Amino acid sequence: MRTTSNEIIYDTTTGSYQEVKNCMAVLDLLSLPSKVLHKDNPKLRKNGNSEDDSEEVEKDNITILLEELYGDVMSSEDIAKIDTQPNPFNFSERVSQTPHGNQREKSIQTDQAPGTTFSQNIGIRDIYDAYQWDEHLAMLREKEKQKEKDKQNNELITILPLGTSGDAPPAVLDSPRLGAVKQNPFENLPGLLEAAIVVERMLNQNLYDEVTQDFKYWDDGSDEFKPLEGSLLPLWRFTMDNFRSFTVTEVCWSPTYPDLFAAAYVAGGVNGQDEGNGLVCIFSLKSPNNPERVFPAPCGVTCVHFHPQHCNLVAAGWSDGSVVVYDAKSPYPRALQSNAVSGKHILPVTQVRWVVTEPNEDLRLFSVSLDGRVTKWQVSRGLVAADILVFDTLEEKSYSDRFTLTEDIPLEGHGTCLAFCPKDSNIMLVGVDTGVILQCHTSSPTHSLTRYPAHQAPVRDLAWNSYQNDVFLSCSSDWTIKIWLQLNLTPIIVLDVGGAIAGVSWATFSSTVVIAATEEGRVNVYDLFLCKAPLCTQNIIKKRKIRMSCIGFNSFFPIVLVGGERGHLVTLKLSPNLRKVHKDPRDLEEATPKEIEVCKLERLISVNR
């Protein structure tokens, strides 16, 4: 600090010059007493206490110092409050509180790892021999892979454990294909196929996002103003360019996977008159662009059906009379096929149906063909046939003589469709092209035969009710749908659709909802509990003239699948009025949904009987 005696300052308050005093230029802004007490300070001792003074004595000494400083300004009570308040100026940053330890050196002594010294002389010849041996091993591995591939394509695939029955020679399917065999690009790249499938599903999810949202959340707002009317919303269409020359003959939903279904294709029109190849395709709603599996056939595939217990087994009937069982898990055509030795049909197979069997029994499969045979197939090492019914050639007789219940008249016509009772798989219904429906027991078909004078045209489809097992329906090309009560020779309900019917199905969510498709492309939805008139009549074909051939209702979702000519295959969703479960107010509130549906159907039968 610089100080001089000859410096002066000008005081603006007095207007005079004053001499600068020789002092330190320090401004005392704040002075606070320290709470740190020194043990040797005599001023802080009271009554000659020693170093072992108590806390009360220390507090009194601090109070004395505070009174000396602020006694003229503050009262003793305010001084006591200041002493009790925390120090606001005692501030320290977090960084200053971080401890910094001194680095220490730590050394560990271990034994030295053992080592080995080796050497070898390698020449050009040795390197050449090593390369030759590696190429030889690679060639052997390729041969082993080719043998495995040929073995999978040509050997007999035993689907189930070997049974005791079936002495027929094994049937081998020669892996029919539409064109040349293409090499799988993912064969030598493990893991790439799964990744490609995931990427494809992601792309389809983005492309068909609107359809997926409609499938989940679509509700027709007009249903609120029309309680007895509904509509159908088209969702996914499964059409491809190379499928335009084919006709969908039958569709079947998987009983295990809600989004999976199988479709049978035949070249040409609905009647399948054109000669050509056929297809069995497994589709998924997650990938509508391409089928999951494609099993080509050298002839048309006329029918298809999923096994109710084993979800990977798909039975199909060909137009040459063969019955084939495919393994849907395999991407290659692995199957069992009937042949002339095992008893194949001579004419096209019209329908195939699996039946439920016990775990220790062999699988059973039934087929009906235009050659006049209803055959049971035992699936073990191969397909073993046993005829259940054999039809004779239809002679020229009057229509009333065809339904005369006498044992002298043989079975006339050709079988067109099959249906098995849900509560007893031994009870079988057979639709005939003469319009007759036959009911028999598979163990003794000739002794338990019942004829229903159903229609005046060939029977197109039969279906049992899943809630009431003694009720079934039938449809025909004579434009009618009839509801039958078992062992009652007259129908309880007759519905006139107004066109040749391609297929009919019960809805799984209701016991009284029936869905039918006509050949002209019109879909009718009936709820027999409300009225006999259709709640919905909608054309799914607008401009093009395409005939419909089949229909299938999903067991898990309120959607229906309709197929026809030119590979046309479309899914339709029912509006809220069509999928609403109506209930009589007199029903018990504590009744289960199944009991309510059974009660509705019983009331419908009692009214129309």
Distance between the termini: 125 Å
CATH fold label of the domain at 174-180 and 191-608: Methylamine Dehydrogenase, Chain H
**Shape descriptor:** extended
| Overall helicity | 10-25%
- The total beta strand count reads 30
Query: How many alpha or pi helices?
Result: 8
- Oligomer type: single chain
Low-confidence stretches: 44-51, 155-182, 394-409
Query: Would you identify the CATH H-level superfamily of the domain at 174-180 and 191-608?
Result: YVTN repeat-like/Quinoprotein amine dehydrogenase
Strand content: 25-35%
Mean pLDDT: 77
Roughly how many Å is the radius of gyration? 46 Å
List the helices and strands and how they pair.
Layout: E1 8-11, E2 16-19, H1 55-70, H2 76-84, H3 94-97, H4 124-154, H5 192-207, H6 209-217, E3 232-237, E4 246-253, E5 260-267, E6 278-284, E7 293-297, E8 301-306, E9 313-318, E10 323-327, E11 335-337, E12 349-355, E13 363-369, E14 373-379, E15 383-390, E16 415-420, E17 427-432, E18 436-441, E19 450-453, E20 459-464, E21 471-476, E22 480-485, E23 493-496, E24 501-506, E25 513-518, E26 522-527, E27 536-539, E28 548-553, E29 559-564, E30 569-574, H7 576-579, H8 593-608
Antiparallel strand pairs: 1-2, 3-30, 4-5, 5-6, 6-7, 8-9, 9-10, 10-11, 12-13, 13-14, 14-15, 16-17, 17-18, 18-19, 20-21, 21-22, 22-23, 24-25, 25-26, 26-27, 28-29, 29-30
Helix pairs in contact: 1-2
